[in-house]
Amino acid sequence: MSSRERILGRVRRALADVPPDDTPYDQAVARDYLREHGDRSVAQTVELLAENLADYRAIVHRCTADELAVTIAGMLAARGARTVLVPPGLDPSWLAETEAEQVPDRIESTPHELDRIDSVVTACAVAVAETGTIVLDGSPDQGRRRITLVPDHHICVVRVPEQVVSSVPQALEHLDPARPSTWISGPSATSDIELDRVEGVHGPRTLEVVLVG
Questions:
Q1: Is 199 part of a structural domain of the chain?
Q2: What is the count of structural domains for the chain?
Q3: Which of 10, 107, 115, 128 is 20 to 30 A from 151, comparing alpha carbons?
Q4: How many beta carbons lie within 10 A of that of residue 207, not counting itself?
Q5: Does the residue 93 lie in any domain?
Q6: Using CB atoms within 10 A of its CB, is residue 2 exposed (0-12), middle (13-18) or buried (19+)?
Q7: In sequence order, what are the residues at sequence separation of 6 or more whose Cβ sits closer than 8 angstroms to the Cβ of residue 113?
Q8: Phi/psi zone of residue 143: left (φ > 0), alpha (ψ -120 to 50 degrees), beta?
Q9: Is residue 134 part of a domain?
């Protein structure tokens, strides 16, 4: 018997006394909580996102779609990035102006190889204004989770306004629950008992977010 069969067997035994007409799981809990706090326009929601991203020490840039390639190239040049990791589904035009070597994400790449990459550029699934959070779901233009956790510099592109929502409940409506999601609020950071903040412990030390609208 496999581990999977053993676990599913325990689940079936635990549910043996549940009547067939019991309330379905998705209806068992009332969903009448607030979906957002306050009544904001689209522009105000985007401003709140930018403010909260910056509050979490992310570096926020704004540009139009036509300016995106030049903006990303400038960010990589300012960072001194010689290599940039590229998810398989990333729009090639985003990196058309950069002089950094573009390294494709490969399944066989080791953590040590990824650690030698200077920067990674991804899209996102959705961005939450109230919490200053960007969410990745492993789509082709975002790549696997580890490519945004190992390199020290992450550039994330957010399409405005279609990928910006006010609240976490609204964000969940945009996400596929069957996909793995990574919720990012600023660069990776932690504090010890003396409250000394250290960045880059379990993720990139620098997060730059480009709001494209």
A1: yes
A2: 1
A3: 128
A4: 24
A5: yes
A6: exposed
A7: none
A8: left
A9: yes
Burial of 108 (0-12, 13-18, 19+ CB in 10 A): exposed
Return the residue matching tokens 């996909």: 179
- Buried b or exposed e, range 34-45, using 16+ CB within 10 angstroms: eeeeeeeeeeeb
What's the one-letter identity of residue 101?
A: E
- Answer yes or no: is 121 within a domain: yes
Retrieve residue 212's tokens. Answer: 């494209």
Task: Supply the pTM of this predicted model.
Answer: 0.83
Cβ contacts of 145 within 8 Å, gap of 6 or more: 136, 138, 180, 182
Q: Is 77 helix (H, G, I), strand (E, B) or coil?
A: helix
Cα three-residue angle 100-206-158, rounded to 5 degrees: 80
CA distance 213 to 67: 10
pLDDT at 133: 96
Over the stretch 160-205, which tens digit does the pLDDT of each residue have?
Answer: 999 999 999 999 999 999 999 999 998 877 777 777 777 666 778 9
Its domain, for residue 90, covers 40-212
Handedness of CA 197, 202, 208, 213 (dihedral sign): negative
- Pseudo-torsion of CA 112, 106, 160, 73, nearest 10°? 70
- Relative to beta strand 119-122, strand 83-86 is parallel
DSSP 3-state assignment of 211?
Answer: strand
